[in-house]
Every structure is written in structure tokens, then in C-alpha cells.
Amino acid sequence: MKKTYVHKTSPRSYKLIQGPRTTMQVTSVDNILANHGFGVPRLNALVPDQANYKTLLIQPEGHITADDSGVRNSNSGQAQLEFSAFLHTASETAADLVITPEYSLPWKVLEDAIQAKNVPEDGVLWVLGCESITQSELADLAERLSGKIHFIYEEYDGDPERFLNPVVYLFRTVRESQSDASCIIALIQFKVCPLGDNQHYEVNRLQCGTRLYYFGGTNTQLRLVTLICSDAFAFTQPYSQQLYDRTLIIHIQLNQNPRQFQFRNYRTHLFENGGHATELITLNWARDIKADLGDGPKCWKNIAGSGWYLRPDKFDSSDSILNRNHKRGLYYTWLEPDKCHALFFAYQPSVFLLTATKVDHIGVVASLSRRIGPIIDVTYSWNSDSNCWKPTQVVDDGFPGIASQAGIATQDISTLSQSPPLSVERVLAICAGSPISSPDWHKVM
User: What is the pLDDT, as a whole number, of residue 155?
Assistant: First the structure.
């Protein structure tokens, strides 16, 4: 199968690593941009200094349709409202890194945003998991937006009826011949490894890509890569050894069972390597996705499972930070099998704005180099009256709802649930007769 870049430029040769189901070609974004006459983008989230960066994530409510033409939102009008408002929030909050999950962002929202010039500023990266699209539809879109944005993506001489599963990297950089004005780039990566299911839905209908793009990887920029759902199957140990160090890995999903072994095995590969400069953001749709696969919508009864995994040497595990995160829908645990910190997001449909320290610091004096992990600033919920994302003061963690299971202790447990959550856990640990083997048993880690 012939593969070229749009505009027919010749790509350079890159190293291939063979996986069990497919081959991913690890490809430098800097080199690809150079082939098109563009310079290296300087992205705020990847500059290895002490400055923090802001991340905005959307965990949307799932009403999806999957048929021969691809995967998309069932209620296109509602999805366009919510994702348009999300991109406006991204601009209003000046978020440095903006992420949407697999198959989620409607293309009309992206096109309208580009037409309205609601696009990333210099240093900002949008990582947009978009609805499926065919190659001809993508070519038409690129033609309509010609002059406003520069598209770079693989082209295929294959079955034109097969759809693509894309993640769009939207960012600014400069032409090598013109360093005074930045251009908007849409670099599109396609899913490499189809999902295996009983109906072979993606196996039979998806046009797979071949490239796993990475940003950065120099002394002046950290690295960033994105896996699209079942690409995790192909991200085997050799890939993790090549990419784990000083890298932010993003894993976008539309996943009924994100805790399934094969979907999380790559995480073990990443964290079994030495060092502390690896971070992973997993972003799924919200709980209880309703999927119409041809016989009407059915609820998956899924969890969301979105999370942030990291292992810095100066992580802030103080009660004040963890309680604050908990109140806003980010829940801490120590993940013993992978020996890393894991912060899981609330399962309900939400937008999360976080401040995070960089994946690593290079050339930063020790007194300033404190990688303390992500802190949630605002959690937003959808307001159908104003058609926008509104800040939520307290996110329901579900604990008060299960207090009735405590029998005669229901009232006491309900009252206790109003206390800081770490205090509640310590009281319950004592009540359950948990063994206390050291004087600092009450510490989180």
C-alpha cells in the first residue's frame, strides 16, 4: 500500500519497531515539519523549566453511533454546542495543552473554530480526538480551509470506503523562510492498531495509519506522544524503552472497559523502566456511554477510567492538596503494581482545568526543581440553560450515596462524609480493624 504525505513531499526514513499485531513508525514531528518548510514549534508544556502549565480536558457524555461510515456523536447538534463551548473555554483559560478523547470532536466544530480564528496561540498544543472521517472528506476539508491552515497527513491508495480514526495536533509554528509570523498547522495522526471485538468492526472498516508522531525530544524540549485507544496493544516494551524517558504520553479512548489487561499492560511497560520523568494522561468518555451499533442505543455501563499517572521524586501528597483535588473530582491512589501515583477523575461528564509541573526539569536549580504533580483548578459541568461549561464548586464523589449501606452507623457515616476525605478514610481504616504496623500509618505514602 503506497503511503505519502499530502502535498506529495517525500518523507524521510525512520526506524521501525515490530509489534505483535502491527508496526508503528516512530516519527519526529520536527523532521516532518522540516520537510514542509516549517520550523520547530516551541510548546509551553514541553519546555523543561520550572514554570507550570495548564491542561484542559473534556470527558464528554457518550451518545455515539457506529456504522459502516464510521463513529460519530448520535446527537450532532448537542455535541457541536458542547465541544464549541469547550474550545472557547480552552481559549478563555489560556490552557497550554487541550485534549479531547477518541472519536469525540465533531469536524464541523473544528472547521468553525478555524474559520472564526479560535485557534491555539503560540506555544499552545491542542490534541483533538475527532469523529471518524474518510480520506476524501478530509481532502475536501483541507481544500475549504486552504490559506487558513496547513494540513499534514498520510494519504493511502486503498479502499476509499474505509474510514480513518484521527487525532489532530493543532499548533503554531513558523516557516523556515519567514520567522516573523506563525502559521497554524493541523498534523493528523491515524490510529495504527484496530480494536478487536466480536464483530471485527474496526478490523473490517478502519483504514489504519502507520506513524506514531512525537514532539520534542531535544535538550530544550521534552517529548509528547499520543496513543489512540487500542494503539496501546501495539505499544510493546521496545516502544516504551525508546519513548518513556522525559515523555508525556497521552492515551485517548472510547473504551467500554479501560481496566482490561491489554489496555493497561503498556502502562506496566512504561513504569517498569527506571527514572521518574514519565507521565501518562488517559482520557476516556464519561461513564455509561450509550452506543447505537445498528440495533438501537444500549448502555455500556462503563466507568470512565480517565487518570493521570506519574512518579516524580517530589510529589506533593499533603492532605491540603489531595483533599482539594478530591473535592474537585480528582482522586488519589498509590498504584502499587506500577509503583506510581495515580489520580483518577470523577466519572461524570465534565471539563477539567489543571495546573501541572513539567515532566522533567533540565538546567533548573535544585531549590526550584520540585515536580509536585497536577492540581485541579476548576471542574466544569454542562449548563443547558446557558449552553456553556460552568464551574462546579464540589464534585459528588459518590460516598454520601452509599452511606445507607452502613446499617445502624448510617447517620454517623453520613455526618463523617462531610469531613475531609482523607480523614474519613483514616477513621474507616481504624473501624475496619486495619493493622497498624508503624507510627506513620496514617500517611498517604
Answer: 86
For residue 145, what is the enclosing H or E element?
A: none
DSSP 374: -
Q: Other CB atoms closer than 10 Å to residue 94's CB: what's the count?
A: 12
Residue 426: what pLDDT? 77
CB count within 10 Å of CB 317 equals: 15
Residues facing 334 on adjacent strands: 341
Residue 312 CA to residue 101 CA, distance in Å, equals 25
Residue 363 bridge partners (DSSP): none
Taking a C-beta distance cutoff of 8 angstroms, is the pair 272, 238 a contact? no
- End-to-end Cα spacing for the chain: 52
Question: Length of the chain in residues, anyone?
Answer: 445
Query: CA-to-CA distance for 2 and 418, rounded, in angstroms?
Result: 61
Helix (H) or strand (E) run with residue 319 in it: helix 319-327
User: If you search the block for the grid coordinates 506563525, which residue do you land on?
Assistant: 182
Rounded CA-CA distance 37/47 in Å is 23
- Alpha-helix residue ranges (DSSP H) falling in 11-75: 29-35
Name the strand (E) or helix (H) holding 344. strand 340-345
Write out the H or E segment, with its range, that includes residue 270: helix 261-271
Q: How far is CA 70 from CA 80, 81, 83, 168, in A?
A: 18, 21, 19, 17
> Per-residue b/e over 195-226, b at no fewer than 16 CB within 10 Å?
beeeeebbeebbbbbbbbbbbbbeeebbbbbb
Residue that is written with C-alpha cell 535544585 in the block: 366
pLDDT of residue 86: 98
Sign of the four-CA dihedral 151, 155, 161, 164 = negative
Residues 26, 281: Cα–Cα separation, whole Å? 19
Strand extents, DSSP E, 9-144: 16-18, 23-28, 53-59, 63-67, 70-73, 97-105, 125-130
Q: What is the pTM of this model?
A: 0.92
Which residue has cell 526506524? Answer: 15
- State whether the Cα torsion 136-137-139-143 is positive or negative: positive
- Phi/psi at 180 (5° precision): -95, -10
CA–CA gap between residue 207 and residue 204 (Å, rounded):
9
- pLDDT at residue number 200: 79
**Which regions of the chain are under pLDDT 50?**
1-21
The secondary structure of 104-149 as a DSSP string is EE-HHHHHHHHHTT--PPTT-EEEEEE--B-HHHHHHHHHHTTTT-
Cell numbers standing for residue 41: 514549534
